[in-house]
Amino acid sequence: MGHWIVVPIVLPAVMAALIVLAVRHDIVLQRIFSITSTVALVAVTLSLVIFANNNNPEMYALGDWPAPFGIVIVLDRLSAMMIFLTSILGLGVILFASSEWDKRGQHFHALFQFQLMGVNGAFLTGDVFNLFVFFEVLLIASYGLMLHGAGAERLKAGMQYIVINLTGSTLFLVGVGMIYAVTGTLNMADLAIQVPQVAAGDAALLRAGALILLLVFCVKAALVPVHFWLPGTYANAPAPVAALFAIMTKVGAYSILRVYSLGFGENAGDMAWLAQPYILPAAIVTLAIGMIGVLAAKRLNGLIAFSVIGSMGTLLISIALFTPESISAGLYYLLHSTFAGAALFLIGDLVASRRGAIYGDKLETAPVFHQSGLLAVLFFVAAIAMAGMPPLSGFIGKLMILDAARDSDLSVWIWSVILVTSLMCIVGFGRAGSVLFWKSASAEGVIEVEGANWPVLPIVAACGMLCALVALTVFAAPIMDYLQGTAAQLFDTTDYIRAVLGEIPATQSGQ
């Protein structure tokens, strides 16, 4: 694909700069530039998915410096899928925001494009240090987006979010430094070569660095016990920003999957599957805590935020099993949970805006509001998707995860927690739906708020996220074929190493 591999990073970066320098005073032109760029990004990433499906991993060396010395961008089935997911999500979010939200603060569209650049860079990079760099790009953009529109609660949650992530960034550098001190490389493909050869006297330092890095990724993925930043942040973020943040936790999960299957996978000797003993129990607890939060939530946005935590627990259970079957099932659930979480945040904002300032997203009985019937249908579809009820993709994803967990030593715990928490999620969303729509239908009066002619784009964006869930369900078979190939590619690292380093050392060629 040549230079096309870097387009998902370069395109939003150039567009962000252009918006700031040329059209920052014209919101209409900002919308046109931003939407056009995102549509182009969807087309480019779709072509990259098609290419990755039919070819081995391909490396792009920035500055033409050879690996492992230079910066490399690597396209394989997993990275192609993740940037395509990001672009589809981004298109829905930018359509939603372009009706009203982008006028509530400055530079929304520029920050949005920088966010896409950082996320895509994190998915495409083949170097741990540059993973840190792209983490910082996406985090800096997310700080501005989080505070978009201001407000006391948003400012408080935003400051907590910033402090937690700055701490995580510091730990990231510490972990990266320790790994580099021992192996002499941060290139992911080269790590797969160097980690098994580390001297016994340096193994403890390497293990410590790898575990510090794992802690940082767990912060991004909102895994217990470092999940506490997510409920307040997501519940108080602007709705389109919270929907876009649905991909942020997936960056943490992706980093765990990429680094600890490549550098610390089955060929890493004593370091093989280093992350598994820590992630699996924490993921089970994360799922339980998330769904307890769904039952206890008093606000709709808080309920959705806790459901995102629960979905991350389910996803990381699957990843932590580190088998081809569990990884393919987990990747399917990753696609599902991203769209389900985004749809719920967008629908939640539509509900809250129509209930007025007094009721908002409070789970309290209120009079009927405008478009309550339509929003009840949308909420119902999104809720059964997040809960994992048939016939939508959440049910398929959870079923595949349960099947993949049958041979695990913790299979009883995994099955029990997933099934029980699914019931808890159904009850929690059922309670919220009955309060917001059914009980409100019997209340006296009608809520009237400004804006009788509601904009169409937010409804279109929310329906688009639900249509993505339907597509995941209808096309589950071909999607799973792609994901099974992706999991197989992750476990057979030969092609990835050859693409980046050009050759496989003798110690690796016989694997």
Strand order of the largest sheet: 1-2
Count of helical regions = 21
Strand content: under 5%
| Average pLDDT, all residues | 91
Shape: globular
Describe this structure in words.
The chain is mostly helical and 511 residues long. It has a domain at 275-474. The protein is built from 21 helices and two strands. It has helices at 7-22, 27-54, 77-97, 108-124, 128-146, 152-183, 188-194, 203-221, 229-236, 239-244, 248-262, 276-296, 300-321, 324-359, 372-387, 393-404, 411-441, 457-474, 476-491, 494-501, 506-509, and strands at residues 58-61, 72-75. A two-stranded antiparallel ribbon has the order 1-2. The model is unreliable at 506-511 (pLDDT under 50).
Label this structure with key terms:
511 residues; mainly alpha; 2% strand
List the helices and strands and how they pair.
Layout: H1 7-22, H2 27-54, E1 58-61, E2 72-75, H3 77-97, H4 108-124, H5 128-146, H6 152-183, H7 188-194, H8 203-221, H9 229-236, H10 239-244, H11 248-262, H12 276-296, H13 300-321, H14 324-359, H15 372-387, H16 393-404, H17 411-441, H18 457-474, H19 476-491, H20 494-501, H21 506-509
Antiparallel strand pairs: 1-2
Quick structural summary:
The protein has 511 residues and is mainly alpha-helical. The protein has helices at residues 7-22, 27-54, 77-97, 108-124, 128-146, 152-183, 188-194, 203-221, 229-236, 239-244, 248-262, 276-296, 300-321, 324-359, 372-387, 393-404, 411-441, 457-474, 476-491, 494-501, 506-509, and strands at residues 58-61, 72-75. The longest helix has 36 residues, at 324-359.
